[in-house]
Amino acid sequence: MAVHETLYEVMRQHGITRRSFLKFCSLTAAGLGMGPEFAGKLAHALETKPRTPVIWLHGLECTCCTESFIRSGNPLAGDVILSMISLDYDDTLMAAAGHQAEELLEQTIEKYDGQYVLACEGNPPLNEDGMYCIQGGIPYVEKLKHMADHCKAIVAWGSCASWGCVQAAKPNPTRAVPIHKVIRDKPIVKVPGCPPIAEVMTGVLTYMIAFDRLPPLDRQGRPLMFYSQRLHDKCYRRPHFDAGQFVERFDDEGARKGYCLYKVGCKGPTTYNACSTVEWNDGLSWPVKSGHGCIGCAENDFWDKGSFYSAVTTAGFSAGAEATADKVGGVLAGAAAIGVAAHAAASVVSHMTGKQSEESSNG
Amino acid sequence: MSSTTAASGPGTSSLKPVYVYEAPVRIWHWTHAISIIVLSITGYLIANPLPALHGEASNHFMMGYIRMIHFIAGYVFAIGFAVRIYWAFVGNRFSRELFIPPVWSREWRGHLMHKIKFNLFLTRKMEKTVAHNPLAQVAMWFFNVLVGLFMVVSGFALYGEGLGVGSWADRWFGWLIPMMGSSMEVKMWHTLGMWLLIVFAIIHIYMAVRSDIMGRESCVSTIIGGWRYWKDDQP
Ligand code: HEM
Ligand code: SF4
Ligand code: SF4
Fold it and tell me: What is the pTM of this model?
């Protein structure tokens, strides 16, 4: 395999026609929120630049990111991207197995040192020297560090790799940590969600390998084109929120009329993701559209924020009794009121006894 | 009683009244109080909305108005705070007490201990204070300066989420959200901050009225008129 091979050549070898290739380019341009002229640029880049290999690693995870990815709403995008990434290493998707597969990793390092993109699904557990996730006889955390040493950039797929997700939820017995807690010297693009939306995944990956640079990121390392707004900012039920029309119970009139789900725990106002615009399953639907609030799966530690059916978090108070800020605050304010009343009563008593002693000393 | 001196006002003491709270400080005190009341009511209703309204969504803007009032009051609160900080630089010496309790002063610490003892009924001797008594000063510093500042920063961080990435509020205050974990945490602490301010308000009002009735100097009238009057002649 020559190093200067382009992605376009790879796609043609996989039986993708030029027509499909161009369609893919315009769809991806649209998906990334770019103008029509961007499609041509994308096609040009894929035709002329040497391809960037992608290594796809799996740590502690449920593999839902891969499941989402291979169901990319647009089959074309799926085919194209799969033909690009299956070339190198993805232990779930590739044909090779065992030693043969592990050898591929070393070959990639030899051939493409410092040039490949490392896509990480799942995360490394650190307790017991990482032995809660062993691959090919070594802890996953070591494999991850080894591959990261030689990569150009990292894509952290899903909430596991980005934040920690369910395996890192309290009390986190295996001490699973997101990628950025282990790898500190490489650029990391976070693509959170449990799983992330397929079109978001293919869009981010295509951008990175076609243009050989990171997409614009927010403070926390998420691509702005998909994570710069909350679901709430683009939710089609937002007019009901602004009007003050809420579902109070899942079987009430408001639920039938499609009112806002804020009061039954929708996390749309605090969740950054593209669900309310890109939607799921080829734009078929997304949770709010089907009548259920967002559970905030793309947010940091969403498992530890209390009930999925309450919009207020219990985080920070969950050590013992579960309590919300309103409960804690109500108790504090009540205590202050009682304290003040008691102090006032004591003041009166003290004042009166003070007077008496003054009088008795005077007299 | 020397009611002949014009400035001695309603006091029953011959000691000279002191001009403590200058007009900007008094105006700030009351806009601050009103904005906290408005922010607390609207904030509570944002977290716990009123029962659903029925009919067409286009006929109502209930939540929208509640949020709008919250944001306007938020601006009043924040700008008032900024002006008050400015006044601490240019105002009289009392205007700085809110921001810098002189913890380095042995005398001040002595007064603080005395005030704590007094409020715990461990001593009956009342000391006179010209501006804030030391205990009130510490409480003010924590609740007004620290919590107030946090409410401004967290409030505008949340406001920046609505204005969008790259907006001025996001650029200036948005860093708070990743620092605290996520916007849910920011909302939780923003709400908790509200309750701390409510706790402060309860105690603050009680203490002010109490020292007006039982103290040796004027209190409530001072924040209205600015002058501190004395009720007796002893030091
Ligand atoms: C005394 C000061 C303040 C109090 C007591 C207060 C109270 C509250 C409360 C209780 C909430 C609801 C939080 C939740 O949904 O869990 C809230 C939300 C909010 N506050 Fe404040 N707040 C204060 C100051 C400010 C300031 C200065 C701003 C700046 C503009 C601000 C902006 C916001 C925003 C943007 C929200 C979120 C609204 C939404 O989710 O739709 N707040 N506030
Ligand atoms: S359903 Fe959720 S995301 Fe939609 S407007 Fe209501 S709170 Fe926001
Ligand atoms: S709607 Fe919320 S919980 Fe559902 S996938 Fe989107 S971000 Fe995750």
Answer: 0.88
